[in-house]
Amino acid sequence: MKNEIEIDGKKYVLAESIKSFTPAKKVSGKKYVIARTYSAGVFAGYLQSRKGKEATLLNARRIWYWAGAASLSQLSVDGTSKPSECKFPCEVPQVELTEVIEVLPVSEKARKSIQGVPEWKK
């Protein structure tokens, strides 16, 4: 696997946890979505299931802070124009969410943008 990625002409070095985990690939037959919850925040990932206010996402990232999009709606359509300013922690294989209040379908362009944001961690 490469040790760096390029987004909008800028190169980013991948963190060790990203290099060893095999994320950011399409999950066959699943839609990539942004899910907003009542109290747990916002996540982007492949929708495995949804029943009422509960949803399970695969290969999911928490959208802790975003820049380069005016809203989650724009983020779901255009992605981010400022990936280096976003704070998206590591991708997890699965997350079960309760109190889901919004699910937005994500365009292919936006999916690539979201998955390409460098991992934020402290």
Describe, in plain words, how this protein is organized in 3D.
With 122 residues, the chain is an alpha+beta fold. The chain has one domain: SH3 type barrels, CATH 2.30.30. The protein is built from three helices and seven strands, in the order E-E-H-E-E-E-H-E-E-H. The protein has a five-stranded antiparallel β-sheet, covered by helices on one side. A two-stranded antiparallel sheet has the order 1-2. Helix 2 (72-78) crosses helix 3. The chain is globular, with a radius of gyration of 14 Å. The model is unreliable at 17-24 (pLDDT under 50).
Could you say which overall geometry the principal axes of the C-alpha atoms support? globular
Order of helices and strands: EEHEEEHEEH
Mean pLDDT: 87
Strand share of the residues? 35-45%
CATH topology: SH3 type barrels
Can I get a quick summary?
With about 120 residues, this protein is α+β, with helices and mostly antiparallel strands. It has helices spanning about 15-20, 70-80, 110-115, and strands at about 5, 10-15, 30-35, 40-50, 55-60, 90-95, 100-105. The chain contains three helices and seven strands; from the N terminus they run E-E-H-E-E-E-H-E-E-H.
